[in-house]
Amino acid sequence: MKQSPNPTTDRSLLLIFLFAGTLFTSAALMFVLQPMFGKILLPLLGGSPAVWNTCMVFYQSILFLGYLYAHYLSTRLDHHKQIMVHVAVIVVSFLALPVGLPESVSPPTESNPTFWLIGVLFLSIGLPFFVVSTTAPLIQKWFANVGHHTSDDPYYLYAASNIGSLIALLSYPFVIEPNIGLASQKSDWSVGFIVLCLLIAACAFTLWKAQQAKEAAEEPITQDDELSLSTKLHWLALAFVPSSLLLGLTTFISTDIASVPLLWIIPLTVYLLTFIIVFSKWHDKVHSLMVALQPVVLLPFIAYSFINPAVLPYWVDLGLHLTAFFLAVMVCHGELARLRPNTKHLTTYYLIMSFAGMLGGMFNTFVAPFIFNAVYEYPLMIVAALLLRPGLIDSVRNRKVWLMQLIFPALLVIVGLGLFFSIDDLPQYLDTIGVGLILLAGLTYSFRAQPLTLALLTGILIFFTFGLHGLLSHTLYQERTFFGVLSVRESMLTDEQGQPEKYREFYHGTTKHGAQRLADKDSRTPSTYFSRQGPIGQLFSEYDKVNDNWVVGIIGLGAGTLSCYTKPQQSWTFYELDPLVVDVASNPTYFTFISQCNPKMTMTVGDARLSLEKEPDHKFDLFVVDAFSSDSIPTHLLTQEAIKLYFDKIKPDGILALHITNRHLALKKVLAVHEKQLQLSALIQEFKPQQDIPLVVATDWVVMAKKPETLELLRKSQLGNWQKLPVTFDVKPWTDDFTNIVTIWK
């Protein structure tokens, strides 16, 4: 119970502004550094969402160490010693300024780069990030001892910290990234860090003066004041689940909805917003509303986002996931805020929160990819969030109550498994099964006051839904790597004679990266984005008379489809980032393009730009850029420096072909700017098939050359409609120092 403030205590607003401003600045610096350094690292690792998630684990780990340091500093040392030790730590951190990557860093090509990435982060930004991480608990603890009339409950300052985080996070893609290059961002951040250190010094000086005026020591914590183990574990669970859910949703939307880097910040923005709300003065009213709304949203969320996601546009599906995520995190964080202790346990409280956040990140980054072959940790944490609703502890304490709550879910599992194994032709009953699952989703609402039953029913629903989708998709192979979820599926098409025919598809997330017809007469026929009717097929057809001895380089292997354009005298090299893609594409059990068309071609594993720099100049007659992370080309492969590198390696009369098919980004604008800036010649074809030919799909390609006459054969071609790139005025040139996807969003 809070005590009434002493009427003689300080009521200065300046004191609040100083401490709140310090927390705001610290949080802003933290959440500018995160996307900034993620962007610096992405070129080395191909733009995978796992890069962002691994960075998040590093940040959470350093945050935990910062909170641990703040806890021990504030509980073991008097205020004067705290200040002296912290000043020494700050001085040492200046050695890491200005922030940046160590020289000549290169990721491993044959093994998982997770630990390499964490090591690089530690060397690059470990010290300054550690100082920033200590600020929230330490400054709040200092504020609790400066004698202000609100010092007995300083948790509201945490809202200032999260507002700083939120503003910085949203400012990065819309204000900082479009206007400031990476080199300037790094130097500006270093200046901001020095300003933060001056603000921390001002807070320390205020505390020093307050303690000189009042040398009253804190009352020792008696045994009655000790926190129980159950309380600590409850805090741990309430912080662990949202942290894991954050990274799970980030991975899910990046692989199953839309792989757009801009979307990575949206779940983190929502996550920070929940902290601002739950530590505000409106917490009590808002928390009860969130608890009531969570099961209401659960019905449409489960029905449309899991049972039948195909009926929704991607932005509606994304909205449902974010809404469900917001409510789940609001309930967990709301309970966490409701159970906050008095100020003598403040650093312990924050320490447990940060430890749980770190555990959540580690679970998603180090454990889940090794035990799951898809992003199953995300639905698992949805169930866990429902389990942590208010009322769980009371029901668990009563054995009869929780045993009764287990009966209905147990019966449901038995009946569901019985139906699944007894029905021979599941697709025939798909609509009936779907309706049954949706009705069951509606039934879960009646158990909203019983967290255990609600969570178990939701888990059962998702389990059967995933099982049903797995059976219907005819997945032959699925594996998860650092770079995403790869799968091989078998499907049916109708051939030119109207007969059913099997074919194989290669997926990265939800984006198809190649397909092959299995009939002998068609198994060597390039398909999907690489069909003979499409732009790349037209290129090979038009230059067929002059390309007998071509040297060809290709970034991105996919299913190996392009290898079927090979001629015996030619030399082909594929550059592929993910070793598993090489394994799958080379395995004739799944795809036979390589084994049938070009089994001796060279495959180089690793980042294409780093590998390409080692090649001799003017080596290639044709160079193809077909690299994708799900639906997005890694931006570092489309910068001016990248285009210059390609042309350094291409012969003077050679051709650069770029595959730019994309659901969300108008990449032709970026290439149009490069054409003008680098004085190149370019043509584009946005191909749409005129006939219904199996596995021939719409696709966009750009070809570039140093001389216009090099592309004359294509420009005059009767096979397709090649056009000049449209003139673009609203896009700044992309460089290694500057990229901005907001301006090219479709």
Automatic annotation (TrEMBL):
What Gene3D superfamilies would the database entry show? MFS general substrate transporter like domains (1.20.1250.20), Vaccinia Virus protein VP39 (3.40.50.150)
Keywords of the record: Membrane, Polyamine biosynthesis, Transmembrane, Transmembrane helix
Q: Which residue windows are transmembrane per the record? A: 12-31, 51-70, 82-101, 113-134, 155-174, 189-208, 235-255, 261-279, 286-307, 319-337, 349-372, 378-396, 403-423, 429-447, 454-472
- What's the protein name? Spermidine synthase
**GO biological process: any one?**
polyamine biosynthetic process
InterPro entries for the chain: MFS_trans_sf, SAM-dependent_MTases_sf
Keyword Transmembrane attributed: yes
Keyword Metal-binding assigned: no
**Organism listed in the record:** Methyloglobulus morosus KoM1
Q: Which PANTHER family match?
A: THERMOSPERMINE SYNTHASE ACAULIS5 (PTHR43317)
